[in-house]
């Protein structure tokens, strides 16, 4: 994928990984269409990039809104980054909790793909980036909705790659563990024991990386046409252990959970 002078649309670009992705794609020469529901954060990202000379269009956009996705893709885009995500409720959650997390963490990807795949098939090129999580390959202690929605996001990205790869369309799926973002800070600062359990599992599993590290690896993967981005290299070994002996892996996760509770 030639990123220079391409058009890259990014959801959730007002902070965290989304902002870092915007900066990294801009540095690679892309023109940007940025969306977020956080107007102040989005404006800060756009102003920062405009000051460097980057071409930026910023739109108030809810990733779970089909109309807002259509607005972000009104101009033909070459790369779409489905980055917006929510942590959701701890435990099993309510019906409304499940509707919200699936709407943002999964259905937003589906809505974007419905718009983009026919366009990209006609052009013979395009690249879809799904920012998922290592929780989509392993699991997330404390938060069923997050674990399940991220598994679904990974599965959907795999399906896109298989279904549209022969049409010249690339897919990249990004699966980090802990990243230094406002989302992680929020759950680390929570007074809810169930939320803190999930937060402690994230920081206890490995190093907390910068959003810039994740963004740089993602841009490189898009450029090279690679599917899976594992910013925490140990996730590959964790996943191999899970596949090799699922019961042993579950037992190990239960031990890890007990240690966090203890």
UniProtKB/TrEMBL annotation:
InterPro entries referenced in this protein's UniProt entry, alphabetically? NAD(P)-bd_dom_sf, Sc_DH/Rdtase_CS, SDR_fam
Does Oxidoreductase show up as a keyword for this record? yes
Question: Mind listing the UniProt keywords for this protein, alphabetically?
Answer: Oxidoreductase
Against Pfam families, the record matches this protein to:
adh_short (PF00106)
Q: Name one GO molecular function term.
A: oxidoreductase activity
User: Could you tell me which SUPFAM superfamilies the record lists for this protein?
Assistant: NAD(P)-binding Rossmann-fold domains
Q: Does the keyword Oxidoreductase apply?
A: yes
Q: Which PANTHER family match?
A: BLL7251 PROTEIN, RETINOL DEHYDROGENASE-RELATED
Q: To which protein family does this belong?
A: Belongs to the short-chain dehydrogenases/reductases (SDR) family.
What is this protein's name? Dehydrogenase
**Protein's organism:** Mycolicibacterium litorale
